[in-house]
Amino acid sequence: MDNLIDAVDRLHSSPTVAYRVLQLLEDPGFDIIELERHLEADPALAAAVMRLANSSFTGISRNVSTLRQAMTMLGARSLRLVVLTVGLVSRLTTGAPAEVCRDFWRRSLSMAVCSSRLSGRQRWGSTDEAYMAGLLADMGALLFAQVDTAAYTDLCAALAHGPELMEAERARYGFDHPSLGAHLLCKWNLPDTITTAVAQHHDDCLTEDGFQRIAFAGALLADILWVRHTTRMRTAQRFFLAEFDFDLDEFITFVLACKEDIIDNSTVFSANLPETVDCDDIVKHARRQFESEALKTAFECDSISAWMTEEYV
């Protein structure tokens, strides 16, 4: 993993400003003037901070006009988020195939929004950290695409994102994109809650860790939104019912609300999402799966009842 990450570093110049800002933000008593000076040295980072401060992400209606005002309002966690995405993630999308980047942003924003919403609803940890874990969950895929571009692009085109793709990654590289992404985030000194969620976001062998369950929910939501007639709709409905007590209407409402947030958030990170989400199709698919599940359950109950009657007689 270290060799692959080093190869990426050789492909791209080191994001010095981003790393220095992240170091400053590790100190709870960071000097805001020094931080402002570093951000001003990188116009793209400074613009991203202003864009985030004036977005619906913050929930603030008034206009933020200065960089220092934006930094004060956002706080260390949100600043860390924008520096990671613009200063580091954007670096990894540079030169990567368009189809890989498009899939990365669609899935990452979906996982981020879903994770943040569920974290707030369940009161499991920080919503900012949940958002960050979702946003960075597929970093490993970008690393593979940078180093082994043609072969990895073919894998992504041929295989469904998830267990299928991960199995092919392990066969080719010896490890999969969640493990590689988590390893990179460890090198960036992100909290264990985030790196663990990234490492396990496709793992359906659930633990007591709320962040891991939220991350898995985000991966399911990304399939629902971006994979037409996904085979994982039934899995998602069962999971959201079992873990978060969502009935069909609550599930549909949640999915559609996430869709709106994803579109809003895509402007914050200048993510290119050319495809629109077909909400009507998603709702119809969800209802069909629910009705199919209900009929199956009713049939099984009738069969059991008939068997018990025969046994009794």
List keywords for this structure.
313 residues, mainly alpha, 75% helix, disordered C terminus
Q: What does it look like?
A:
By secondary structure, the chain is mostly helical. 75% of the residues lie in helices and 0% in strands. The chain contains 16 helices and no strands. The termini are far apart.
Can you summarize this structure?
By secondary structure, this protein is mainly alpha-helical. It has 16 helices and no strands.
- Cα radius of gyration in angstroms: 21 Å
Name the poorly predicted regions. Answer: 293-313
The helix content, as a percent range, equals over 70%
Strand content: under 5%
Envelope shape: globular
The counted number of beta strands is 0
Alpha-beta classification:
mainly alpha
Distance between the amino and carboxyl termini: 65 Å
Largest sheet: none
How many H/I helical runs?
A: 16
Order of helices and strands: HHHHHHHHHHHHHHHH
> What does the average pLDDT come to?
79
